[in-house]
Amino acid sequence: MAHEGKRIRAAREGIDPTKLYGIAEAIAMVKAKANAKFDETVEVSMNLGVDPRHADQMVRGVCNLPNGSGRTVRVAVFARGAKADDARAAGADIVGAEDLLEIVQGGKIEFDRCIATPDMMPLVGRLGKVLGPRGLMPNPKVGTVTMDVKSAVAGAKGGSVEFRVEKAGIVHAGIGKVSFDEAKLVENIKAFADAVAKAKPAGSKGTYIQRIAVTSTMGPGVKVEPGSVLGA
Predict the structure, then answer these.
(1) Phi first, then psi: what are they for 15, rounded to 5°?
(2) What is the residue-wise DSSP string for 141-201?
(3) What is the pLDDT of residues 3-16, one digit of tens each?
(4) Global confidence as pTM
């Protein structure tokens, strides 16, 4: 544990926990402090002025990261006939209907994103208790219930990220890898912040985006000056 504490102290060295950094400087620090033996994910978290317990303060949406997420996303699609063919052609990993329902009910969930055509939702609805807690339930608000399965699969594979505010009013997402160029990470974060800003609910009062921080999977957090992200 002493070694772990020393590693964390060393990682935090040079980061002022009371200071708000410009986004470019914050990203440079996160990249410099990412010393794991794998390509860490760069994550952004935003504290929002909302109480998601109220329906009119729920924040949810999807953002297409201009430079991709760097993740390999496994996509499942509930569709039949021509739409199932479209999904396969677009690169979906698993495509099916009742057969896919049985696989998921059996506890085999080997995918990170689930897409469905609208006509399949009565079937998919039966998986609410399985998919819901994992954040995998298809939803028209984030484009995962759609007839345009080709675009939805391409978006998921190309780096679209879904976001949903949590109980404490925090929304977070992985927006790239530390191996990405700083400029590309900054561009991705600005795109994500813009998507969250556009998803501002009617019930939000006062300052909507209150705090922003960036970190890598194993690295320390760096607080960000919101204006450097939102002012673009």
Answers:
(1) -105, 120
(2) GGT-B-S-HHHHHHHHHHTEEEEE--TTSEEEEEEEETTS-HHHHHHHHHHHHHHHHHT--
(3) 556 655 666 777 88
(4) 0.79
